[in-house]
Amino acid sequence: MNQAISSKGLHPALTSLAAHWGWLVARGMAAILFGFLAFSMPGLTVLTLAIMWGAYAIVDGAFALIYGARGGGTRRWTYIVVGLIGVIAGLVAFFWPGETAVILVMIIGFWALATGIFEIIYAIQYRHAIAHPWAVGISGLLSAAVGFFIFAFPGAGALSLIWMIAAYAIAYGFLMIVAALQLRRWRNAHPALR
Length: 194
Hints:
single chain, 7 helices, elongated, disordered N terminus, membrane, DUF308_memb, transmembrane helix, transmembrane, Acid_resist_chaperone_HdeD
């Protein structure tokens, strides 16, 4: 039997997450905004990047926490963990922006890798759902790949890392919005949820 459907109807965790699809849109928009801001500032310093990224990670983490907390069922823990990691990493980068560039890069790398792993876990848990696991899975693979690259090459040039992080944020944001719109479409296809 499809795991997205229970014997009494729709899976309660999926229906609850579908009802809060707007939080995924907010996460996506925050990521895209950060990416475009980073691209639009070619003279971006590591200090400015730390402050901008820290603010983005806090906002993204808060949205993930809210999305996970409002979702139902036992599988929402992945978004709660992603949210906590984001808020903590953002606070570290935001309040200690003067640390060395390598430490900032490692924080961003850890955040991206951890976020990616937990989003892959979430996508696997919901692989039979009708709505959105492929978009979350692809965003998780993208996050994990960026995190792995940063750990493998922490000494890469600051400009190339800024561009990579900005491109990643834009792609990640679009995938979150796609996932949200799929959840919305799934919710609209089930009138009992409205």
